[in-house]
Amino acid sequence: MFPYHQSDEVVWQFSSIPNQEDRMLQYNDEANTIINKNIMRRDTERQRRKKMAILNASLRSLLPMEMIKGKRSVSDHTNEAMNYITYLKNKIQELSVRRNELKSLSNLSVVVQPCCDGVQILVTTNVNEGLLLSEVLEILLREGLDVVHCFSSREYERLIYSIQSKGNDLGCLDLSGLQQKLNDLILSSRYI
After folding, report:
1. pLDDT higher than 90, residue 155
2. Residue 52: in which H helix or E strand, if any?
3. Beta strands in the chain (DSSP E)
4. What is the CB neighbour count within 10 angstroms for residue 159?
5. Residue 145: beta bridge partners?
6. Tell me, what's the pLDDT at 84?
7. Alpha-carbon span 13 to 3, nearest angstrom
8. What are phi and psi of 110, to 5 degrees?
9. What does the pLDDT look like over 36-65, one tens digit per residue?
10. Are 64 and 84 in contact (CB under 8 A)?
11. pTM for the complete prediction?
12. Which of 100, 151, 164, 170 is most buried, most CB within 10 Å of its CB?
């Protein structure tokens, strides 16, 4: 802005060329914007690195010690984590198969208990297990027991045998040994 005198009046004339002060202010604003952006980028990157370090430490803490021993780089830890995940998946599959086997075994049971003047044996198996009742009776006869009653019933997919027997000398009879022999018989008949 420059004053322009034509008469006694003061007239102000505006120039379209910015003065040096305006240019400096504009330059300073642009420089400050660039500096602020650089500071923000640097802070964002610092925060990202901190977060990655925390996540890597967390990952490292989840791995077994023998998998990270002697390995210091993040890529080694990540690789070992992938190997460990694969190992755990395989272990889960193995345990699932084993659990299913044990569940099917839980349908098999032998209970030997004293009753009145003899011994009662309850045998529970799956319908398709193929237990031979004659083998159970043979074991009882070898133990010196005479079979008095033998009942069988079918409940859903299970067979239940109830055997009542008497013996001459029940005081000498090892009930837990008899139960173990019958359990072994049932388990061996499963895998024939």
Report:
1. no
2. helix 20-62
3. 2-5, 10-13, 109-115, 118-126, 145-155, 158-167
4. 18
5. 167
6. 92
7. 6
8. -130, 130
9. 888 999 999 999 999 999 999 999 888 888
10. yes
11. 0.43
12. 164
